[in-house]
Design brief:
16% strand; Aminoglycoside 3'-phosphotransferase, Chain: A, domain 2
């Protein structure tokens, strides 16, 4: 038995494809073709059937930022609660032959099980390829609708989701402040200063008494598709308990540093405010939690350094340092 991490890159690719084939055999589908289309924290396969239908199969990749089966089942419970929610377009999970939305695959010789979920296919390009102010405005309205639904959601027994009541909400160890080449003292000091700001912002939210609610947790340009004048959200695997301002900041983080950042930010807010009030009580909480997202991404990059392209982890940490420095200089 070996772990996924100890496989070569080609061995990992073969294992993921074997898992996809084993998983899809448990569905009532006559499959014509399975093709991998993405490999990030998970692997995504496009599944085409003999009748012309398409589906997206997500195969969980074992590792330091992997999600448990309990967390994935909680994601499905949240999606099921959104089926009849007004003004919310999200991906729809497909049950297997036994009626289960999660298919766990055990591969011979591999120590970790691979949890798989099949979703209906969403037509249209990713938002990243249609990043216009009108589309971003639609995403803002979608985010607000999801947040509004979160106030009414009653989690079922066993619901498992991380809580964004700490700067690093996920379960992986915090290594960002360790003494290591990727975090020299000058860089570490910048990240520590940012950490203090995020901790203070979370304390303010906690003291405000505002209730936490379920958030998408990762509503960025590659987790939204544009189709028929609508925007459809998918990949809810990072859902978490938190406050809306944190979710907004996560979305905006991925446009941070673009020349048109202020235009996109304004469009997002305009769309959001057609559904709900803008939830930034102090006027700088969004910016602080954008910086908070930079901390999480930097910590992830250190964990994933061996699986990233050469130099990519260093580039992520350097870019985060530079942008945080600008934020600290501006806010004093």
């Amino acid at each position: 038995m070996t772990t996924f991490a100890k496989l070569s890159r080609s061995g990992q690719a073969r294992a993921l494809r074997r898992a996809a084939q084993a998983a899809i055999a448990r569905y009532e589908l006559e499959v014509r073709r399975i093709r991998r289309i993405a490999l990030e924290s998970n692997a995504t396969f496009r599944v085409e059937t003999a009748t012309g239908e398409c589906f997206a199969l997500r195969v969980g990749v074992p590792g330091p930022i992997a999600h448990s089966v309990a967390e994935i089942r909680s994601e499905i419970a949240w999606l099921e609660s959104l089926r009849d929610a007004p003004d919310v377009d999200v991906v729809v999970p497909v049950p297997n032959k036994t009626g289960d939305d999660v298919t766990v695959v055990d591969l011979a010789g591999l120590a970790e099980p691979l949890p798989c979920v099949l979703f209906e296919w969403i037509d249209g390009p990713l938002l990243d390829r249609r990043l216009t102010a009108p589309n971003v405005e639609r995403v803002g309205a979608l985010a607000a609708s999801l947040h509004r639904h979160g106030t009414r959601f009653r989690p079922p027994p066993g619901f498992a989701a991380v809580r964004y009541d700490r700067p690093f909400p996920f379960d992986e160890p915090v290594v960002l402040f360790d003494d290591q080449p990727l975090v020299p003292p000058t860089r570490r000091a910048v990240y520590r200063a940012a950490l203090a700001r995020v901790e203070a912002a979370i304390a303010r939210l906690t003291d405000s008494g505002a209730p936490m609610r379920v958030l998408h947790g990762d509503l960025h340009s590659w987790n939204v598709k544009v189709t028929d004048g609508r925007v459809v959200a998918f990949d809810f695997e990072d859902l978490m308990w938190g406050w809306p301002v944190q979710d907004i900041a996560t979305t905006l983080y991925y446009w941070w540093g673009r020349d048109d950042f202020q235009l996109l930010r304004s469009a997002f807010r305009q769309g959001y405010e057609t559904v709900a009030p803008w939830p930034d009580a102090t006027g700088d909480e969004v910016d602080t939690f954008i910086v908070g997202r930079a901390l999480v991404i930097a910590n992830d990059a250190i964990h994933l350094v061996d699986s990233l392209a050469p130099g990519e982890a260093e580039a992520i940490l350097r870019r985060g340092q530079e942008r945080i420095r600008l934020y600290l200089d501006r806010t004093g």
